Each structure stands twice: as structure tokens, then as C-alpha cells.
Amino acid sequence: MAGQRHTVHTVIDSPYGPLTLVAVDDVLKGLYMVGQRHRPPEESFGDPDPRPFTEVERQLDAYFEGELTDFDLPLRLDGTPFQRGVWEQLQRIPYGETRSYGELAENLGKPGASRAVGLANGKNPIGIIVPCHRVIGSTGGLTGYGGGLDRKQRLLVFEGAAAEAPATATLF
Fold first, then answer.
1. Which whole-number Å values give the CA distances from 160 to 20, 27, 69, 148, 164, in the listed order?
2. Which residues are catalytic?
3. Cβ contacts of residue 37 below 8 Å, gap of 6+?
4. pLDDT tens per residue, range 114-124
5. pTM of the full predicted structure?
6. 127: nearest Cα among 102, 108, 152
7. What is the C-alpha to C-alpha distance for residues 161 and 163, in angstroms, rounded to an integer?
């Protein structure tokens, strides 16, 4: 049928638990963790089909092995213009570094929008690859993470952006 999109998914193992990868017309549009906040319903993931994810899996494996610091994949980021702007800023945060919500708001030319940046960050549909885990509170504390603060802490320690310490929630 003309105009109809073909959505498929697969589930892969990772050091952070199973990851569900979702593609539309062979372009990655979702990477979701078990128990993730804002995870779409399973029925929206389409049919199981691992074929479109070969390169995504290869790059994720290299990342988890510490061999890849920048992903190079076509992505389909569906969201509002503001959300897409935030997600674009996330992709500019270098491996092993962090930024605050306020810094991202400044970069977007909206210095008073750190709360809105946090909400957009939480709705990031492609975790890890679009590194929302690299965003921290203005005091340097970990703040909410759709995949859970423990995973956020582990990802930041893995990338060398945080010291090994218990994750403590900071509400923003």
C-alpha cells in the first residue's frame, strides 16, 4: 500500500539487559530498555525481523566492547521540533563527557528551558545511541533517566564520565 510504513523489531542482549530495536523502513527509530519509562507498547514495534539491524548490532557490540565511541547510523527521530533539537544536542555530547540540562537549553538558545530539555531528554526514543545518559543536573548529580539511575550510572562509569559510586537521585 502506498504511504504505509513497514515497522519491525528485534531484541538483543547487552550488558544493560535486553534491548528492543525498532526500525521503520529499515531505519532505526527506537532502542528501548526493559522497564524504560516512555517505552511504547509492544504492539507498536511491528513484526519480529532481525535483518535491518545488522549494522546497529555491530556498532552496539563495538561500543559495549569499548571499541566505538561515535555511532554512525541513519536514525529516524520522531518528535516535536523542540524534542528533535534536544536530541540533536545530545548527539553532540562527546563520549566520556557530560552536559547539564541548563547547558543544553543554552545551546538551543532557550536558557530558561532546562525543565523542558529534561522532559524531551526523557522521551528520547533511541537510548544509548542518542546519549541521553550523558546529561546530568546543574550540581553534577545524576537526575532521572528513562532506563533507571543505576543504568545511567553504569553507562557513565563505563564511558569514564563518572566515578564508581552509588547513583543518587536528584530531582530537577
1. 25, 30, 11, 19, 9
2. 132
3. 122, 144, 146
4. 999 999 999 99
5. 0.89
6. 152
7. 7
